[in-house]
Structure formats: C-alpha cells, structure tokens
Amino acid sequence: MRFWIALFVFVTGLVSSAIGFTNQLENQPISVINASASLTQPASYVLIPNAVLSAYEGENSVFAIGDGAVFMAAGRQSDIVAWLGDSAYVEMRLSVDKTNQIASLVEIERPGAGELDDPVGADIWKTEILSNGTALLPIELNNEVAVLVASTGIELAPRTLRVTWKLEETEAPIAPITGIGLVIMLVGALLGLYAAFVYGKKFRSRRNTRGPKRPKPPKPKRAASQAGNGPLTSRRAQRGMKYVGLALSVGMLAGCVPDYQNPIISPKPLEQPGVLTATLDSSQLERILSEISEVVAVADATLDRESLEVRVTGPALEIRRAAYALAAKSTDSSVAPTKILSGPVQLFLPGATDTWPRNTIVVTGEDSLQVMVLRQESPRDDYKLYQYSDLLPNISFPEVPAEIVGANALKEDNKFLSMDPASLVEGLGNLLNRGFDSPWALLIDPDNQYVSDVSAVQLGLQETLSNANLSFEHALSESQPVILANSEGGALVALYMIDTYTIIPKEPGDAVAITGDESILLGTGGSATGIETKYGAMLLFNVPASGSDERATLLGATQQLLSALTLGG
C-alpha cells in the first residue's frame, strides 16, 4: 500500500511539473512588436501619429522602403499637421487582431488640395533622415512626437512602412505549479524510500523467525454469483480512487498556471499634453543658429544685401542692410557689421505655443554677450534672425522658464504687464532726452550704459551745434514687438525704436557741420539747410507684472545709423 501511495504522489508531482514547464515554454514574453503596412493610397505624405508610436512601451523606430528618396522626420504632432496644412496625406492607424495576437498598420485617407512642398531641412523637425531606397529613424518617444514619411514631397511617399517597439527584456514567470510539482515529486520519492525501508525490515524479520514450510491448504472455490459482480471490496475501491484523486489533484494544481497577457492585444497610447509646450529644443536651436550665422557671415564678407533675406528679417534685416551701406562707403574697418555669435548658448527661451508667428529668445557669447530674437512666420518657413542686440553690462537678467517648458507668448494689448511697448518707447525716449530728471525714471530704470551713452551724444550735439535748432524724436517702429513671459510674472519685451535727429540752422546763411558715420553716409560734412538722421535701435526690456512696484529695466540694446538726409535741398 505504501508503494502505491508513493507512486501516486510522485506521478502527481511529475505531471504538475510538466504542466508548469510546458506553460513557461509556451508563454515566453515577446521582446519585439512589429506593425507593418503596404500603402495603397497614392499620397505624397504619410503621418504616423503619436497614438501609434506610443501604443507600446520600449525603444521605438520607424522603417520605410521606397523606390527612390526616402525622407522621415520626427516632430510635435501639432507641428507636422500644421506643416501639412491643406495638403492631402495618409494617416496611419494601429489595428490589433486579438485572436491571432498580431498588430498591423492601416491607412486613413486625408484628402486635400494644398500645395506640395519638399520637407527636407525644415526647421520645424526635431530630427530627420534622408536616404535612398530605405531609411530607419529611431524615435525619442514622448506624448506628442509624431513622424512624417515622404519622398521629395512631390513624388509618392514610400510604399512599405514598419513601426517597431523593442520591449524591455523580461523573463517568463515561473508557474507556481512547477515548484509545487517538484515538491510533490520529492515527497513521493521520500515515501517510496520509506516504503522500501519498511518492506525490507519486515522481510528480514520474517526470514529470521520462520520454521519448516507447512503445506498450504487448498483454496476454497468461490461460488459464482447469479447477480453479477458484487460490490467492490475496500481494497478495490481504494485502487479506483487513486486515479480519481490523481486527476483531481492535477486539475486543481493546473489552476496555479499564470495567465500570460500578450502586450500586443492591449496597446496603451500616451495621453496628449494638456498644456502648450516648447516649440524648439536645443538640437534644433543649434542647427538654426549655425545656419543663420553662416548665411550672415557670407553676406558680411561681400556686403550682399539680398542674400541676407534667406535667414534675416524684420528689424535685423533693416539694421544689417544699413550697416552694409555704411561699410560700402567707408574705408574704416571699424564700421564693419556686428558679428552674429552662434554660440556658446548661455540662455534659450523658446515660445510655448501652437500658433504662428513663433519667437525664440537666445543669449550667446562668452566675453561679450549677444541676445537674439528668432522668428518663424509660418510652419513651412525657416526661423530667421528678427532682432539682435548687445547685452548691457551690470544688468540682472530675470528668471525665465526652462527651455523644455517654454514661455507663453503675450500680445501687445495684454493687461498683465505694467507697461506696453508704446509706453516703453515713450518713456525711454524721454529718459534719453532728459536723463535722470525725466519723470519716467520712476517707471524705467535709467541707470544703464545705453541711456548714458545716447544721452551723452545728444547733449554733445546740443553743445556743439549751438547755432542750430535740434530735436530728438523716438517712436515705436511698425515692426511687431516680441513679448515672452518670464518666471516672475512679467515678460521680456523685444522692440524696435526709430530715433530721428533733426538739425536746422537758426539763422539764414548759417551751416551745420556733422562728422563721423553721419558725414560718411551723407557724403558731405555739413549743410546750410539742415540735416535729418535716423537711427534704428533694437531693444530688449524686462517689464514687471501689472501692479508691481519694480521698474522696467533695459537688458540689451544696439543702435545703428539708418539714413542721413539734407533738408530742403
């Protein structure tokens, strides 16, 4: 009986362990998920949205096969959609066959009649790749990145796409039934050994105590029952129950097998961001600054006014062209245009918006610092240098949002700031004309190098040209100011101010004389009828929040002579 029990227990453990090992082999966690598609729609652009890219956790990449050029770019999904505009494109969706546990891509046609354009090199992309025939683009995944797939923007996009997720390596969980089965097998083996030991002990005891063999009496014959087989004896019943017990034990232990959940059947896309995020990252900025500085350097070397338009616009373009005009007439190398510093980047403040135009403020340089405003007019336009100025010495730069967060863009007529751009120009102009005696000194801090230097120039003109009437006017230009919120409740305000100096002789027959850059641009040293000179000043202010007791401060300024004209001549 003991041998039967031991065998029963051992077999139960053996079957249980086999079930556990089989389950573990069949439920090995997958390490890679692939979703593919062969496009049928004749589209020039294909959008792979964030909902597809973020459907599964793990390293993400997109692979494309085409007949010619293959272009892929990653960027904010809202930016890619804005770049596509009214152009027709195909959007990919994830389809999951839960029965066969397979993921695939399906096409959703987005019709349109917008203009087709080459997407290669657009500033709006965070990363991009251009190859021939095939291309693989690794994706740094977050909750807003998407991928644009194209060829030249005119020809059809690649026809074969595959999105791959490389999952984290995990080991298959060991089913509890495996361990339980091994333990039961050990118990069965021990019971078998014990049964063998007991049987051997009894055998040896009988062998030592038995006498001569006695003849065995004949076994009586059992009468056949007319009622058929009688009820099972207790021993036969026990043998029958062994198999029932084995089946029940294994069935109960089978419930200890873990139910493996294949990740393919349960995609979990990331939620879309609920707030506006930064429009640029550091890698985009580095690329943009490099291209801008290269274009400007080439134009500076030849004083080529037209080529500047590729990467310069607004006040910066007007100032630069004026500097070229002055340099072309001068033999003095000191009037060469100010060099644009592409690095190192000391501060980077992109806007946080999903609209256009977009603006970014960046501070570069080492010994001398330069503050620049970069501007993008529309999704398909490149960022251009919109404004630049020297950062003034001994100023305290305000705290600004982190570059990965970005700054909110404010309108000119917002009510959150203590001063609007027009008031800043009026106040600064009064400070330049009157110095510390100006009532605007209560609202704008006059203690900076720019106010000191320009006020000194105006005072020197008044003292030198005593025989002439002088007037100094300061007005806000028509160029749109740039306003980005800081972290202190206020904002950085970049604006362009036009300074007009008018010099008219007091008496008929008198003449006024000018020197320096003004005389170079005018082509003469004086005039008997009067002279009007215009200067452009690119300025950056820190403006406190409305209701604050703090004054606005001038952070950066650069002034450039724009024109010098003879009056009445």
Describe the protein's architecture and organization:
The protein has helices at 2-26, 50-53, 77-84, 176-209, 234-254, 282-302, 314-329, 421-434, 449-464, 516-522, and strands spanning 32-38, 45-48, 59-76, 89-97, 102-110, 127-139, 145-150, 160-166, 345-350, 358-365, 369-376, 384-391, 468-476, 482-485, 491-505, 512-513, 526-527, 531-543, 553-566. It is α+β, with helices and mostly antiparallel strands. It has two domains: 32-166, no CATH class; 282-566, no CATH class. The strands form three sheets. Strands 9, 10, 11, 12, 13, 14, 15, 18 and 19 form a nine-stranded antiparallel beta sheet that branches. The longest helix has 34 residues, at 176-209. The protein is elongated. The model has no long low-confidence stretch (mean pLDDT 87).
Number of domains as seen in the coordinates: 2
What is the global morphology?
elongated
Strand content: 25-35%
Q: What structural class do you assign from the helix and strand content? A: alpha+beta
The tally of beta strands, per DSSP, is 19
* Helix coverage percent: 25-40%
Q: Secondary-structure element order, as H and E?
A: HEEHEHEEEEEHHHHEEEEHHEEEEHEEE
Rg from C-alpha positions?
A: 43 Å
